[in-house]
Amino acid sequence: MKVLCYGVRDVEKAIFEEVNKKFNFDMTLVPNYVKTKEDVMLAKGYDCVILRGNCWANKENLDLFKEFGVEYVLTRTVGVDHIDVAYAKENGFKTAFVPGYSPNAIAELAVTLGMTLLRNVAYTANKTSKKDFTVDAQMFSKEIRNCTVGVVGIGRIGLTSATLFKGLGANVLAYDAFKKEGVDHICTQVELDELIAKSDIITLHCPFIKENGKVVTKDFVSKMKDGAILINTARGELQDLDAIIEGLESGKISAAGLDVIEGESAFFFKNLENQNIADARVEKLVSMYPKVLITPHMGSYTDEAVLNMVETSFENLKEYIETGKCKNEIIG
Ligand SMILES: NC(=O)c1ccc[n+]([C@@H]2O[C@H](COP(=O)([O-])OP(=O)(O)OC[C@H]3O[C@@H](n4cnc5c(N)ncnc54)[C@H](O)[C@@H]3O)[C@@H](O)[C@H]2O)c1
């Protein structure tokens, strides 16, 4: 079984090689995403391709994969937006995805952003990097045990975040669209308005559902506690950037930590130093550092998360080979 893994970053190679010791696939790792025809051409002679986000399995590329004899189009991601699933199925490809991976990867980033902003670490380090070692009023901080943290969405990641914040001593409130059982030892479930009004740090961990619209709106911001911190490691579409900028400018929001921004594919994963970002709102947010910390959708960029994604992808392929079926087949 010849397997071509696209979009493999140098730091991930050792993980792929270690996992493959169990499977013994004839595996090739390439850094290329599937974007150009040259990228697709690399699949010539392979039975299986393993994709990640931004590896476009559109009609054109799937036609080429088919011509080259590829049978399995797997993705090591949860999202499958980069695959034309209906067309892949029509053309007889076997597909699979990864239903989940280490929730701690994203939860730890949310906690880190929250604590960094609460303790004004970026602000302070920015000053000391210029050899200004004075201590000023901006560095004064509340301790997390004296804070209330509001977690919006207590699924896998949100509940992990809640657990971590609870472990640090915070009072944790949670709101989920569906009330959860068995979580009372970690958080107190309340209505969204109560969570917004009482939280010193709000962290989003719910999915973006188009029909439900944005979660962080002008109304949401207006109900926030004065000087609260907003963290979003979930989905950029959940937040109205104008509302957040207005909130930051007025001081209603003291700081924001964002791992996701709507339209992020236009600028994330690119070096745009000395260039303008087309979206003026993003340009504005960038300029608000260290009050605003932006990380480029790197929540899942950890050893454990990558290990989970690679292991599950290889298990998916093994299951297809042994049974002709796969429990993680992508349902189009
Ligand atoms: N930053 C990253 O790298 C990264 C990586 C993986 C996932 N994510 C994002 O993290 C989020 C959570 O993922 P998960 O694996 O925990 O999902 P999950 O399905 O386990 O949990 C989501 C929870 O949100 C609840 N929910 C749905 N709509 C809601 C709403 N409007 N308000 C409140 N709660 C709502 C659901 O009932 C569920 O309990 C998703 O948006 C996902 O896309 C980000």
List the helices and strands and how they pair.
Layout lengths: L1 E4 L4 H14 L2 E4 L7 H5 L6 E4 L7 H9 L4 E4 L9 H6 L3 E3 L6 H16 L2 H8 L19 E5 L3 H12 L3 E5 L12 E2 L2 H7 L2 E4 L13 H6 L4 E5 L8 H10 L2 E6 L21 H8 L4 E3 L8 H21 L9
Parallel strand pairs: 1-2, 1-3, 3-4, 4-5, 6-7, 6-9, 7-8, 9-10, 10-11, 11-12
Helix pairs in contact: 1-12, 5-7
Bound molecules: nicotinamide-adenine-dinucleotide.
What ligand species are in this complex?
Answer: nicotinamide-adenine-dinucleotide
Task: Report the major sheet.
Answer: 7 strands, parallel
Neighbour order of strands in the largest sheet:
8-7-6-9-10-11-12
Instruction: Give the end-to-end Cα distance, rounded to a whole number of Å.
Output: 25 Å
- Helix-strand topology string: EHEHEHEHEHHEHEEHEHEHEHEH
| Chain-averaged pLDDT | 97
Cα shape: globular
- Please count the beta strands (DSSP E, at least 2 residues each): 12
**Helix amount:** 25-40%
Uncertain spans: none
Determine the strand fraction and express it as a percent band: 5-15%
**Computed CA radius of gyration, to the nearest angstrom:** 22 Å
Short account of what is shown:
The chain is of the alpha/beta class and about 325 residues long. It has helices at about 10-25, 35-40, 60-65, 85-90, 105-120, 120-130, 155-165, 190-200, 220-225, 240-250, 280-285, 305-325; strands at about 1-5, 25-30, 50, 70-75, 95, 150, 170-175, 190, 200-205, 230, 255-260, 290-295.
Q: How would you portray this structure in words?
A:
This protein has 332 residues and is an alpha/beta fold. It has 12 helices and 12 strands. It has a 7-stranded parallel beta sheet, sandwiched between helices. Helix 5 crosses helix 7. The model has no long low-confidence stretch (mean pLDDT 97). Nicotinamide-adenine-dinucleotide binds next to helix 7.
